[in-house]
Amino acid sequence: MKNLVLLGGGYGNMRIMSHILPSALPENYSITLIDRMPYHGLKPEFYELAAGTKSDKDVRMGFPDSDRINNVFGEITDINLDDQIISVGNSKVDYDELVIGLGCEDKYHNVPGAEEYTHSIQTLSKSRETFHHISELPNGAKVGIVGAGLSGIELASELRESRSDLQIYLYDRGERILCRFPEKLSQYIEKWFKKHDVTVVPNSDINRVEPGRIYNNDVPEELDLIVWTAGIQPVEIVRNLPIDISKGGRVILNQYHQVPTYKNVYVVGDCAELPHAPSAQLAEAQGDQIADVMKLQWQNKPLPEKMPEIKIQGFLGSLGDKKGFAYIMDRTVTGRLASILKSGVLWMYKYHNG
């Protein structure tokens, strides 16, 4: 019996399972899914858990129910690519084929004190912990969110909906919000923040963090709580693998999403070096192609000379419960329509997978 091992129950591996179960997986194969937690976390919604507008059960869902899946829950302590063994605590799991989809962690850019004195929304447990600290803040407390990408924007807006009494500061390295995208998008988001009393601090450079204090361009600013949303990197165990790793810590792959020196090993999602910013949408698109490659190989069919280019349609973002923004196929959409679009995409994902 051969064993296909999936490391991490994120969007990429969920998509792979949806394509190969129940009929595409060969009869002589089983799947072993290894994850810390016994559920799939809906990471694009973790900011709502941290802000207190969604409960824990709303941002997770069960893994596929199949007698062909062996679930192993625990912390992965070693990935031995030569011996084809995964260590999970004191247990060992052998594999014939492996998909690494272990996701990411915060990247602190060597800022002193950032890791020690800021909170995170990168995992469900960290988002839950961040919520507990936010919920204990007194009236008028100052919350700083470092990083004005999609996660920072959505956290700031959702936190304003949850806690109208807090002073919220969003620190942005650029001159304007989402400066790589059309100015119309930036203006809409900034207008929403101004109307709802969220202070955007442009041209920020947070170069030090201390308990209750950040240094922005070396100028100290007092804050009661700080959340870090200023960048991500693959988890440490992947960054330390003895294979080719990019400067950003991601695994360099061939066109079939395989590690070139270990072609029975695939990497999906945030750990993969790809020409797009990491996202759930990208992980799913990559999962589609990995499943296609696997099925061809199981059928002893040749792989295509060139894989199709992965195309990302854009992104969707929320501004509280009723407003949103989107950049889809080079077009900007704002307001209630964007909010409905995002809600629809999330509902479809839950419905399809649940």
Tell me briefly what this model is.
By secondary structure, the chain is of the alpha/beta class.
Describe the structure.
With 354 residues, the chain is α/β, with parallel strands linked by helices. It has two domains: 132 residues, FAD/NAD(P)-binding domain (3-Layer(bba) Sandwich); 123 residues, FAD/NAD(P)-binding domain (3-Layer(bba) Sandwich), CATH 3.50.50. Helices cover 28% and strands 29% of the residues. It contains nine helices and 23 strands. The strands form seven sheets. A six-stranded mixed β-sheet has the order 5-2-1-9-20-19, with no helix packed on it. Strand 22 and strand 23 form a beta hairpin. It is globular, with a radius of gyration of 21 Å. The two termini are 29 Å apart. 39% of the residues are buried. The mean pLDDT is 96. Its EC number is 1.6.5.9. Keywords: FAD, Flavoprotein, Oxidoreductase.
Tell me the fraction of residues in β-strands, as a range.
25-35%
CATH superfamily of the largest domain: FAD/NAD(P)-binding domain
CATH-derived architecture of the largest domain:
3-Layer(bba) Sandwich
- Using the CA coordinates, give the radius of gyration: 21 Å
* Number of strand elements: 23
| Secondary-structure-derived class | alpha/beta
Q: Major sheet, described briefly?
A: 6 strands, mixed
Strand order of the largest sheet: 5-2-1-9-20-19
Which segments are poorly predicted (pLDDT under 50) over 5 or more consecutive residues?
A: none
Instruction: Calculate the mean pLDDT score and round it.
Output: 96
**How many alpha or pi helices?**
9
Rounded to the nearest angstrom, the distance between the terminal CA atoms is 29 Å
Coarse shape: globular
**Total domain modules:** 2
CATH topological fold name of the largest domain: FAD/NAD(P)-binding domain
CATH class of the largest domain reads Alpha Beta
- Please estimate the helix content: 25-40%
